[in-house]
Design brief:
An eight-stranded mixed beta sheet has the order 4-3-5-6-7-8-9-10, with helices on both faces. It has a five-stranded mixed beta sheet with strand order 12-11-13-15-14, sandwiched between helices. The protein has two domains: about 180 residues, Fructose-1,6-Bisphosphatase, Chain A, domain 1 (2-Layer Sandwich), CATH 3.30.540.10; about 120 residues, D-Maltodextrin-Binding Protein, domain 2 (3-Layer(aba) Sandwich). Helix 2 runs antiparallel to helix 3. The chain contains ten helices and 15 strands. With about 325 residues, it is α+β, with helices and mostly antiparallel strands. The radius of gyration is 19 Å and the shape is globular. The longest helix is centred in the N-terminal third of the chain and has 29 residues.
Length: about 325
């Protein structure tokens, strides 16, 4: 994949990325050979790789944004777009990870899944918030997570994650056992508040029927919370819960790559991140908040969204 970048005139960048990937592999090999490998050191090394690759991908995505963005295709609906930069950025990420961790699996939004032999899988959204990216709104993210297990959020165990907003340079990171950070600063969820004082983030599906139902639910929820925010980038919404910019976030119909890294970061910052009724996050539902706020919000949503839940599960069943 990095050869493609070389061919597309970014030779210096590709060579630098290849060198970084090689150094990561050599360093981890030395740790293993010295008998110093632990779960903590492994997760730290995995996070270092995720951060390195995410920053390189962010640099590429930002450059392509400055050069001008064009739509390459549509996916689930006419408003669900993919740009050439999405594909190029994922190709770069996939190539770097293959160089650094050739035995790991890969699961990306644009290029699908490939099994590995190590038991680890990298879950990638090269440009989360593509519509924001297309319109020049400076709120989109490169999201990279590494999980143990198959590429299924119902069964995997998150190990490390990194989300970068290339437009403003913010870098969110976490490992499951090492806390969450914005840059070098440790972050934590906002303190508990009554639901009426909670700033709640959410998002809407690309399917027009589901969007209509979601809009009805938001109209019913809004009088009982401080306010609603819909920023358009799920990975960053989860990071905003992690650093206290949102009290809570919930959404339906997300894909695994939308929430993989953000969920790791939010959970490491003290959030309860779950699906419906305490299950793992899935396409059906994800909610992240300080634990008592999460409980209050989930209870309120359960009161409001019988119709929405039925529709979401019907749509999910159609895709299985």
């Amino acid at each position: 994949m990095i050869r493609d970048i070389v061919a597309s005139r970014d030779c210096a960048l590709a060579n630098r990325l290849r060198l970084i990937a090689h150094r990561q592999l050599v360093r981890w090999g030395a740790i293993v050979a010295a008998g110093q490998a632990t779960v903590e050191t492994m997760n730290t090394e995995l996070l270092d790789i995720a951060r390195t690759v995410a920053l390189a991908a962010a640099e590429l995505a930002s450059r392509r944004r400055r050069e001008g963005v064009s739509i390459a295709d549509h996916k689930s609906s006419p408003v669900d777009v993919v740009t050439l930069a999405d594909r190029e950025t994922e190709a770069l990420i996939r190539g770097m990870l293959a160089d650094a961790r050739p035995s790991d699996g890969f699961f990306g939004e644009e290029s699908g899944a490939e099994k590995g032999s190590s038991g680890l899988t990298w879950v990638v959204d090269p440009i989360d918030g593509t519509v924001n990216y297309l319109y020049g709104i400076p709120h989109y993210g490169v999201s990279i997570a590494v999980v143990e297990g198959e590429p299924d959020p119902l069964t995997w165990t998150g190990l490390a994650g990194c989300v970068v907003n290339p437009a403003i340079g913010e870098v969110f990171t976490a490992t499951t056992d090492g806390g969450a950070f914005l840059g070098d600063t440790s972050i934590a969820v906002a303190p508990a508040v009554d639901l009426s004082q909670a700033l709640v983030g959410t998002g809407f599906a690309y399917d027009s029927a589901m969007r209509g139902v979601q809009g009805e639910l938001i109209a019913k929820l809004l009088p009982g919370v401080r306010d609603i925010r819909r920023a358009g980038t799920a990975s960053l919404d989860l990071c905003f819960v992690a650093c206290g910019r949102l009290n809570a976030y919930f959404e339906r119909t997300l894909s695994p790559w939308d929430h993989a890294a953000g969920a790791i970061i939010a959970r490491a910052a003290g959030a309860r991140v779950s699906g419906r009724n305490g299950e793992a996050p899935s396409r059906d539902f994800i909610l992240a908040a300080e634990p008592s706020v999460a409980t209050a919000l989930e209870n309120r949503l359960n009161e409001l969204d019988t119709r929405m839940g039925d529709l979401a599960r019907s749509m999910h069943a159609d895709r299985v």
